[in-house]
Amino acid sequence: MKAAVSLVLLPFLLLYPGEAAGRLQSWIIGGREAKPHSRPYMVSLQANGKHMCGGALVHTRWVLTAAHCQLPRNRGPLKAVVGLHSLDKASPYQQSFSIARSVPHPDYQRKTMENDLMLLKLDRKVKKNRQTKLLALPKKAWVAGARCSVAGWGVTEQPGKLSPVLKELDIKVLDGRMCNGSRFWHGELTPTMTCYQAVVKRSAPCKGDSGGPVVCGKMAEAAGVISFSDESCVNVFRPPVATAVFPYKAWIKKVLKSL
């Protein structure tokens, strides 16, 4: 998956030369500001006080995110922040947690981005309230045409700064065979990868706000975890890609039980 590697590496060289951990960069092009705390499952994964990746609270002690969001040891520990809307303003609903345990999928492949999922165990239980709630795991596999959404604190243009507030973007799931065809990802996608596009043209979750959830359904389910996209965020021939959650539901439940 050469295209996926280049897109996450090149922008990151501006920040941390020589590190492939640029996959932690999070961007959303277009979209709108989310109503504060309307997505109470959203998690900001931070290092040294800076937002690095998105995530979803799926248990009072576990966050679901992307495996590539794991930081090298020399970059300092990740912290998980819930109950957050603004990155710049402290909130009385904000809760911050250290990571007690990181569990990337055992078959995660950094080069191909296969099985790009990770569960992070928090150092204590989250206090649930109106601003902090859990996101349900999917009851089914979401198919082509499904209307979903993504959210994050990523930049709104290339190059640019992180959004100070949580933004959201409406998307739709694309047909897998078409997306993996010769005009698009040309066979680089695996069966557990799902690609999608923004409902509004020239909008895209560029770098997917890595680790953040693809949320589908009236009852809000974690249909996917955003993984990668093309170097050009709005390239219609390289739609953003997420790891589908449903095929990994058994693995996720097994890890969640290992308290």
Automatic annotation (TrEMBL):
<dbReference type="InterPro" id="IPR018114">
    <property type="entry name" value="TRYPSIN_HIS"/>
</dbReference>
<dbReference type="GO" id="GO:0004252">
    <property type="term" value="F:serine-type endopeptidase activity"/>
</dbReference>
<dbReference type="Pfam" id="PF00089">
    <property type="entry name" value="Trypsin"/>
</dbReference>
<keyword id="KW-0720">Serine protease</keyword>
<dbReference type="InterPro" id="IPR033116">
    <property type="entry name" value="TRYPSIN_SER"/>
</dbReference>
<dbReference type="GO" id="GO:0006508">
    <property type="term" value="P:proteolysis"/>
</dbReference>
<keyword id="KW-0645">Protease</keyword>
<feature type="domain" description="Peptidase S1">
    <location>
        <begin position="28"/>
        <end position="257"/>
    </location>
</feature>
<feature type="signal peptide">
    <location>
        <begin position="1"/>
        <end position="20"/>
    </location>
</feature>
<protein>
    <submittedName>
        <fullName>Granzyme M</fullName>
    </submittedName>
</protein>
<dbReference type="InterPro" id="IPR001314">
    <property type="entry name" value="Peptidase_S1A"/>
</dbReference>
<keyword id="KW-0732">Signal</keyword>
<dbReference type="InterPro" id="IPR001254">
    <property type="entry name" value="Trypsin_dom"/>
</dbReference>
<dbReference type="InterPro" id="IPR043504">
    <property type="entry name" value="Peptidase_S1_PA_chymotrypsin"/>
</dbReference>
<keyword id="KW-1015">Disulfide bond</keyword>
<keyword id="KW-0378">Hydrolase</keyword>
<dbReference type="InterPro" id="IPR009003">
    <property type="entry name" value="Peptidase_S1_PA"/>
</dbReference>
